[in-house]
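Data card: per-record layout.
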Amino acid sequence: MSVARKIIIDTDPGQDDAVAILLALASPQDINLLGITAVAGNVHLDLTSKNARIICELAGRPDIAIFNGCDRPMGRDLVTAEHVHGKSGLDGPILPDPEMPVQDQHAVDFIIDTLRAHDSNSVTLCPLGPLTNIAMAFEKAPDIMGKVQEVVLMGGAYFEVGNMTPAAEFNIYVDPQAAKIVFRSGVPITVMPLDVTHKALVTKERNDAFRALGTNVGTAVAQMTDFFERFDKEKYGSPGAPLHDPCVIAYLLQPELFSGRHINVEIETQSELTMGMTVADWWGVTDRAPNATFMGDLDADGFFSLLTERLGRL
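The structure for this 314-residue chain is written out next.
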């Protein structure tokens, strides 16, 4: 019997973040969720924190500890994405306001204290939004980096270039300085860029499968993706919405669904034209040392089979 992997989810929910949290909560035999840390990103911190609690209550898990983190990036003004996720960040389903509390401790201190309390290489950090909280923890307490088993993050792009600017993906663009700190930290990093997540498309058939679960969770997820997809359909002409963030959790559960390369990834923090670009040396044309496993493809049918089966457990 394998031991459940200890993780911290750092997030800015967002409909796709919500599905990622639900997937983790549906998989307790594989994932030991130590806590959820909220960060400003898709919407402001008060809403990302609220949305994280709404999702835990939807899953029947008001026992999960949720911490408020940074309400703005390290060196820039906050950019949000209500145009994608709606005013609440979770537009689509009508879900009750949460009753569960937010913890008193700051998310950055929770990350530091939790890592310090664990063995080396034993906790996986799963950032689904801007990397502000993770970078702040690494800067404040460099000793914790040896405790990190892996950082598995959703962010960046190479072949798909950008979704926020012509060159940059949203999560990295919001706080490029934080991303630079994390990518230069030396901890093992696995990246789920747009190159992969844009292949995790919720088609009508896949969304019907969520709805057919006949549960509160299945219905809510179907309603979230119904709302979320209108943006991508209009922008990309795609048949549905990409479920970006659940790729992070799916990788922990079934890494064989994904394929990529261990390469060098640098973050652009100087040029306003390409600010937040993930400069991925996919073809190995520099002598820069590899610092991240950058995923390039996924088995979409396998991904949705896993997701639907696990959500059905909630």
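Known properties of this structure: The radius of gyration is 18 Å. The first helix runs from residue 15 to 25.

See the next section for split statistics.
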